[in-house]
Amino acid sequence: MSDQQAAAEVVPLNAIFSTDFVAILVPVTTANTMDEVAAAVAYHSEGRRVRALPYPKVVIHQGKKLPGHMTVAQANIKPLDHVAVEYEIPAGAAA
Q1: Do the domain assignments include residue 3?
Q2: Pfam families under this entry (predicted)?
């Protein structure tokens, strides 16, 4: 286990996935990447209340799309911040 993983702190996030109407509280850590956050949020909605699509997911925090490799700590996301996770659908692709 690396020092970064050992020092990771839990950060509960208010989150919504794509067209879901249910906001959820998702526990992530400061060491999680945005790709991992997107997967954690999608897990509760995708294929249940939201149709699964074959596109990558992106985390949006304070109106900005965050790169998948960025960690929660690097993005300066704080406990109970709101994030949205959306599909990144290429222009011209069918949704």
Answers
A1: no
A2: TmoB
